Predict the 3D structure of the following.
Amino acid sequence: MTKFALGQSVSRFEDLTLVRGAGRYSDDVRLANEAHAYVLRSPHAHAKLLRVNAAAARKASGVLAVLTGADVEADGLGDIPCMIPLQNADGTPRGETPRPILAVERVRHVGDPVALVVAESLAQAKDAAELVEVDYEPLPAVADTYAATQPGAARVWPEIKNNVCFDIVMGDAKAVDKAFARAKRVVKLALVNNRVVANSLEPRAALADYDPATGRSTLYTPTQGPHKILTQLADPILNVDKQKLRVVSGNVGGAFGMKIFLHPEQPLVVWASRRLKRPVRWTGDRSESFLSDVQGRDNYSIAELALDADAKFLALRATTYANMGAYLSNFGPFIPQLAFVVLSSVYRIPAISLNVKGIVTNTVPVDAYRGAGRPEGIYLTERIVDAAARELDIGPDEIRRRNFVDSFPYRTPVESEYDSGDFAGTMALAMERADWQGFAARRAAAEKRGKLRGLGLAMYIERCGGGTGDTITVRIGGEGKVTLISGMQDNGQGHITSFKQVLSDKLGIDADAIDVVQGDTDIVTDGLTGGSRFLAIGGVAAIAAADEAVEKGKQAAAGLLEAAAGDIEYRDGEYRIAGTDRKVSLFEAAKQANGLSATHTREPEKYTYPNGCHIAEVEVDPDTGETSIERYTIVDDFGRTINPKLAQGQIHGGTVQGVGQALLEHGYYDPESAQLLAGSFMDYAMPRADDFPSFDCTFNNVPCTGNPLGVKGAGEAGAVGAPAALVNAVVDALQGRAAVTHLDMPVTREKVWRALAKR
């Protein structure tokens, strides 16, 4: 028997299937008579489309269709929507950036889709694409976030002045100004949160099928929420009733936020399939991923921290220029707003204000990437707190200790209410495990070897558990199986394992008797995976549905036991007459009742606030600028850890992504041509196993009071805490050898070497 309780480190049930190659990813779905699509993309970052001549391509061998922007207009197809309405600080609406699925009059970034070629084979489609004649009139382009707002910068959209498509102010600016007026010390820091590329293991893909008999289309695509794709595709773009469309998502090989959003290729293949009345497949290659996948981060911020004579925080003021890319993606304008809700971090900062300016540039659109705004906000706060400690000559731990929130609930000035936590205890435990006291000796030993040793500490908090609700159906059959149906979509986190563990604990049954169904809009109700909300929403809904199904079974059990329903109790997979040994199994009762079923929707009631401490210890070679991570310590408060093994896997993955951004990754565009210069793994430095030591991970959990499971969320925590810890460590290493107070990410060896050369 494989019964599991909450809190056990259960190995993933998914893995045996996946390591045998028996998963069902996009390329594992094969349909008869498939056609293959290839997207012809713009080589220019900004240009007028003067002419698209596809006549020769349409006559090429094997070609079934060549679709262009003219066909989009002729068929009356809609644009990919931005779903975040926004009002500027002056009361005007945000700028509009209409995004057709194929360019109509202009292209606005390298990789913008210009034509879709469909042929019997992919090779034929690629060959035919070379025959499409496109006349471009190149236009001035801009890529740099801050430079795009300066006088004389090229305009991405003629009607959007200074490329600022929205300008909002969050928080109490007047209270902040008053606090700064009485401050004894003000610390100021300008910092870049560099652009990153999601680089999921499985590239984006889309396979559309069409049934002429019903007029219904099915789209197979890896996504974090099939319903979110369906609702955008149907009426808004394809002018098709939602009942005429089905979206299916099988195994998803990584997503990190990027696969929540609608990309042009998904409506393109459905449209082409409906025109050709046969299946059409598109699978992106890695080069296309760099040029077309929604990217992340890319902020330029100016931050100021006001302190009193005792180094207590009085106020934080920041202005963030947030790059949105050429078009506003589905949730794009919402992401920099999420930075605001964590700017208080784990500290008492009485007044905070943030001015967010959304900037359009001739780059790939930007949207949520693991953490979605919270890593950007925490990076800003933790860097300026560290800078303040150095300016005031106070230890980085001491300045934090003086300002920790230490009583709960605590209402921040940034719309968050922390229900629980032990911030000082978490930092103390991390320092103990990192051997903080022994660092001076390790630094001295490194100096004897000609190396520079640095220690960086960063606290973090994030706001999770919000968004839409999740509906869970639990069905108990008489044949000995329980089926759980969820609208959330696993993309590598281990949903099946977690759901099995939750239901095994709740029902007291063998986990192998539980099946989990996700990813099919014909079966599941609306749902979305994102924001570290799976257990706080879906897990709680699963428990409630299981309780209801068990309660329904009491009547059937009473009949079998010839007792009153009020005398029946349930425990460990069995109904019993209270106080006796007479019993029937859950499945016997289900058979008697012709099945037991219950559905429960869990709407978010309160946010959760996972938090923790990262401590990075690095060694820098002053001759080369190379930085190596010698030790890495993490203490997290996830409220309650349902499966420590799964949680640690999430911590490791998120931390690697955060460190990757801090030290290596940069989606760099040429500032003049807006060409992506880091458009392959030859130029975009992905972190590798030998870049990391073993992580020391542990927990200092304080249960969340906002949900019955007491969980706070774990999926994004590593990516939130890691960047500031690494940069703090590198800056610390350079002290005494260079006049460096800040280095922007990524802190590459060249950047470190140049900083040391200026000493």
Observations:
- The longest strand covers residues 313-325.
- The domain at 14-23+468-602 is CATH 3.30.365.10 (Aldehyde Oxidoreductase; domain 4).
- The chain has a mean pLDDT of 95.
